[in-house]
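Could someone model calcium ion with this protein?
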Amino acid sequence: MRALSFRLIACLPAMLLFVPLLSAQSKSKPVDAEGHQWWQHAVFQEIYPRSYMDSNNDGIGDLNGIASKMDYLKWLGVDVIWIAPCFPSPQVDFGYDVSDYENIDPMYGTLADFDRMQKIGKQNGVGIVFDFVVNHTSDKHKWFIESAASKTGPYADWYVWKDGKGANQPPNNWQSTFGGSAWQFVGTRGQYYYHYFYPQQPDLNWRNSKVAAAMYGSTVFWYKRGVVGFRLDAVDTLFEDPNLTDNPIQPGKNEYGDPNMFPKYNDKLPEVHDVMKGLRNAANPYNAVLIGETWTSNVAELKDYYGKKHDELQMPMDLMFTELKPLKADIFRKHIAAVYSSGEWPVWVMSNHDIKRAYSRFADGKHDDNIAKVMAAMYLLLRGTPIMYYGEEIGMQNNDPTRKEDVKDPIGQLGWPEQKGRDGERTPMQWNDTPNAGFTKGIPWLPVPASYQTHNVASEKADPNSVLNFYKNLLAMRHSDPALLDGDYVAVNESDANVYSYLRRYKNRAVLVVLNMSESSQTVSVDLSAQGFGAMQAKTLLTTAKAGDTQALDGISLAPYTVYVGEVTK
Ligand code: GLC
Ligand code: CA
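Reply:
Sure, complex below.
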């Protein structure tokens, strides 16, 4: 507990400011007999707006483009889309550098386009979650422009300003996660400001209660306009040690050539939880959900983000799940058991706009689509809320740049070739097999991979065995089956190194999920009597293996990378 008392005192103004809101906490109505909230029954999907659908053919996706695909999202079974930032922005970090939190960037449309998209979404049963960049603004935000101009103006203390240690010496050794020092000198103030990400993304000073009030107010602006929640960007790094203690250096260098550093004094400081509570207080009157970009290294850290009284994030993402490899039954079984052991409601994520696509991570070149189906069944049938990534449902692959001059993501230019940036997982959605996959009639901002000819919405809709129809069927099942909505989770056949099997039990029914996560054929025998289900056969619900309508449980044959899902009753 480093300097805890100091921190409590420093946070008091912000805490006091929000005490009245506490009384506005509303307990929202559950959607089922188990007391679950709406977001526990929902399927979420992240949409990267630059790449989803381009309505005006300038090569960049936009809100009207998203609006035009709401019927597709409904057909697929997506209940909520999280749209990556579409606020006004210089686009240094493609929207994660916000210059106005209460408007839409003209490249994406207008506030009226937002209202229209929100309305069409509502008609299709698709809610909108926006992406709130909490840690930093753009250096072109008016708050920062004023803050940089003078040490005494009204915004002087809205960012993290410090004197250098000496001439040309930054205040301490902290590094930006995007390479180089985390400090940038500004002559007008004769001081440095702190940026955990790019220099164009100065960190807000969350110890200033005015910052907290303005930011909480911006979330309310959007709740009033109909957004049903926020995905909170980069929450781990909201606070820094006020004493600016140097971080410990570790052996070796990172991909930018900087020494490895353990972010002991600028990552997950305890004050982060006060801000999570403040954001939650603002969300509660609107029954809104908060999703966190929570990079944790163990389940205990993840549990912290829910709040001791469940008064912080309802949905901190389990991003450790995106790091599991290789594809082995044991690895997934073990991690999933650890997550459930915390007793919290998990949030399952396989990839996003910062992480190589799951399809490309697990493909073996021989069973690629089948592997994608195994991974889909594995996580979409678990207890918890899933967040899919756009294009995952059609088996989109990464398309990494092969030449430095093609790279759009600045970290790819800085770290080339070790770090190729995140362009590969951000390519245009593949709608059909016409040029540019039907995303635009202009020049797409990123090239479409050749796989669009086989992996696109139109062709896959027509193929009953496609990855897309498999996802659609899984999601339909997940929405209607009480055992998948409300049932518990029990792993079965835990010593099987190749086949991962689990049961979702609810009252006198259960859904059995059997996944061959190996490249060889397997025959498994499942005895569920210890779990309360003595019958030795199942009714087949969905399978990529060869199974009849009824399947004997003492000999389920699974070709390499296949799925069997069946129903058992008491
Ligand atoms: C988050 C975003 C990432 C962005 C960074 C800085 O990690 O997901 O895309 O670059 O925050 O805002
Ligand atoms: Ca456009």
